[in-house]
Amino acid sequence: MSDPDLPIPTDNGAAEEPPAPVEETASQFEALTADCARLEQERAEINERYLRLAAEFDNFRKRSEREKAEAIEYGSTDALKAMLPILDDFERALKTDCADPEYARGMALIYQRMADALRKLGLEPIETENQPFDPNLHYAIDRIESSDVEVDTVAAEYQRGYSFKGRLLRAAMVRVAVK
User: What count of other Cβ atoms lies within 10 Å of the Cβ of residue 115?
Assistant: First the structure.
């Protein structure tokens, strides 16, 4: 019989350590299993954090691209807003009588060219006359009693409204019919 604390000789002459007691091996196994479970949980948390960060980055990228596209598409909004008073002045000038018909014709041509150029850029006038009043498109300045038009219908336009590529640029100033 051999002593359990003494090394066991092997065929090649080197001494081999005696096997560890079963209780010690079981406790090492439990510690390794607990370590493995902890590491698995950490891996799952890190993976979840990675997936969230990847999703956040993807959302940020999409939002940035959308904002950039909108900036490019609607970047000329301020320039168009600055030109609207000039367009209004042309419309007022065309409504007044002029002694020289050639001058009036020249003004009308200039106005038409400017309006066409702005229309090509995406500027569209908002139709108001005899349209139902829409507070999203119209700015009511006055209410007038009228039997000629239906209730809550635009009776007159004081200043034309415009939309730019489907977005309201300036609301139309109107007079609304009431009973």
Answer: 15
Long-range contacts, stretch 91-96, CB < 8 angstroms, 24+ apart: 91/160
The H or E element that residue 172 is part of is: strand 172-178
Beta pairing partners, 9: 15
How far apart CA 70 and CA 56 sit, in angstroms, is 21
Residue 20 DSSP label: P
Residues 154/133, Cβ–Cβ less than 8 Å: yes
d(CA 10, CA 152): 107
**126 close to 158: Cβ distance less than 8 angstroms:** no
CB 26 within 8 Å of CB 35 = no
pTM over 0.85: no
Q: Retrieve residue 101's tokens.
A: 């018909």
Q: How do residues 28-52 score in pLDDT, each as one tens digit?
A: 888 999 999 999 999 999 999 999 9
Q: Distance (Å, rounded) from C-alpha 149 to C-alpha 128?
A: 13
